[in-house]
Amino acid sequence: MKSVELKRPVKASRINRTRARAWALLVHYQWDVVNRDGNLSDMFKEILSTRKVSVARVSYINRIVSGLDTHGKLIDDSLNTVLKNWRLDRLSVIDRGVLRIAALEILYFNDIPYKVAILEGVRLAELYGGIESPKFVNGVLDALVPRVK
């Protein structure tokens, strides 16, 4: 008889956080391309007025966008210290957003393990970034973690 490997059930809260990160990336993208003068929280409100977002995801999206509003300058400074031969403002909008979201989780969200923040950042880069984005994001975030510890 063939053995069957059982997969662990994925918790709904993990799925909601993963999808919330993708929504936060959309908010960041809109903000970065269209409205850098305002804040991300205002952009999120604008998006909520025109798009359907699961209620289960709204609180985590809000946590991310408000965290980026509050700590954006410090996050950018931290990322710029680990970027080798790059500047944050020269990156693609997607890579910049993914790095900011993951860096926020690494630097300020004590309930999210570093490895999870990096893995989720790489996944976002795989889904929405360029061919080299996942490796690039992984390298930058790996360099950021020792500075936090």
How many structural domains are formed by the residues? 1
Number of helices: 6
For the CA atoms, what is the radius of gyration?
16 Å
End-to-end separation in angstroms reads: 48 Å
**The CATH class:** Mainly Alpha
CATH superfamily caption: NusB-like
CATH architecture: Orthogonal Bundle
**Which geometry do the CA atoms define?**
globular
Layout of strands and helices, then pairs:
Blueprint (H helix, E strand, L loop, with lengths): L11 H23 L5 H11 L4 H28 L10 H16 L5 H15 L4 H16 L1
In short:
With 149 residues, this protein is mostly helical.
Question: What report would you give on this structure?
Answer:
Helix content is 73%, strand content 0%. With 149 residues, it is an all-alpha fold. The protein has one domain: NusB-like (N-utilizing Substance Protein B Homolog, Chain A, Orthogonal Bundle), CATH 1.10.940. Helix 4 (93-108) packs parallel to helix 6 and helix 5 (114-128) packs antiparallel against helix 6. It is globular. It starts with 11 loop residues before the first helix and ends with a helix. The model has no long low-confidence stretch (mean pLDDT 90).
List keywords for this structure.
mainly alpha; globular; 149 residues; N-utilizing Substance Protein B Homolog, Chain A
